[in-house]
Design brief:
This protein is of the alpha/beta class. The chain has a five-stranded parallel β-sheet. Strands 1-2 form a two-stranded antiparallel sheet. The protein binds zinc ion (2 copies). One zinc ion (ZN) binds next to loops.
């Protein structure tokens, strides 16, 4: 944040001018609002788009305008991000309760990224058993980055549906016919991408190839990527393409295990 922002805004909103409404689902508000302490008291437009007001002689941009425009942009990106599940939507780093040493290491790594972005050179590869919070933590990072930086971000779950959607771009008469390549291109170029449930065993060669092309493209473009997987990549990806995929992922991501219990203590 630059000095000017710090002067405009207050510590209550962490000098962003924006607060998270934690009860937004109950109150029916947006998940984000202009700060009630430093922005709303100076707002003269009443929140009416396009956030101008008249002072008698002149039409002036309202103090709230930059903040509200940013909120509008963030909401637009967020609603198109693919984070659909209520379980994961609008969660912040404080919503992640680390229950093991591994989990707290992963939380710290996530916190670090949120603080330093865009000056981060590696994403995350979180792997471990189901139910250890990998998807939650990856959604938290995506949410925080979209909220604070208004960067374009997407969440994709690697599933049958995902591949069916890609396949449908080749099917004549399908709604998405002819978009072949567009979806892949969008995913390759989006600023932040979460690839949830990255796996190997169950996929067909075409599906594997599609995923690896995506990894390759993001590697080449030096795009920030978070991956979750049930498998240890050091084992599951070792043999693939003579280890090329694994070595790219190692360069792109910090590989961290997330487990429910700390196995070092268990042993
Ligand atoms: Zn404030
Ligand atoms: Zn206003």
């Amino acid at each position: 944040m630059n000095k000017k922002d710090k002067n405009n805004f207050c510590p209550y909103c962490d000098y962003s001018g924006i607060i998270h409404n934690t009860a937004f689902e109950i109150t029916g508000d947006n998940a984000l609002s202009p700060c009630p302490k430093c922005v709303l008291p100076k707002c003269k437009c009443g929140g009416e788009e396009p956030y101008y007001y008249s002072d008698g002689d002149n039409i002036r941009a309202c103090f709230c305008r930059t903040t509200r425009l940013k909120i509008d942009r963030v909401l637009e990106i967020y609603n198109a991000s693919g984070i659909d599940s209520k379980k994961f939507r609008w969660k912040t780093i404080n919503d992640f309760k680390a229950s093991s040493k591994h989990a707290s290491e992963a939380k710290n790594a996530a916190y670090d990224i949120i603080q330093k972005f865009p000056d981060v050179n590696k994403g995350l590869y979180l792997w471990g058993n189901p139910g250890t919070g990998k998807t939650l933590l990856s959604c938290i990072v995506l949410t925080e980055l979209i909220t604070h930086h208004a960067v374009n971000g997407k969440f994709i779950k690697i599933s049958r549906n995902f591949f069916n959607l890609l396949r449908s771009t080749f099917v004549e008469g399908s709604e998405r016919y002819g978009q072949s390549g567009k979806i892949e291109k969008d995913l390759a170029s989006v600023d932040v991408l979460v690839i949830d449930d990255f796996g190997v065993q169950r996929d067909s060669p075409w599906e594997q190839e599609t995923l690896y092309n995506l990894i390759d493209a993001r590697y080449e473009a030096e795009k920030f990527t978070i991956i979750t997987s049930n498998n240890n990549p050091e084992k599951s990806l070792k043999e693939l393409s003579e280890g090329r995929i694994l070595s790219r992922l190692r360069e792109m991501c910090r590989i961290l295990e997330l487990s429910g219990e700390d196995y070092r203590e268990k042993k």
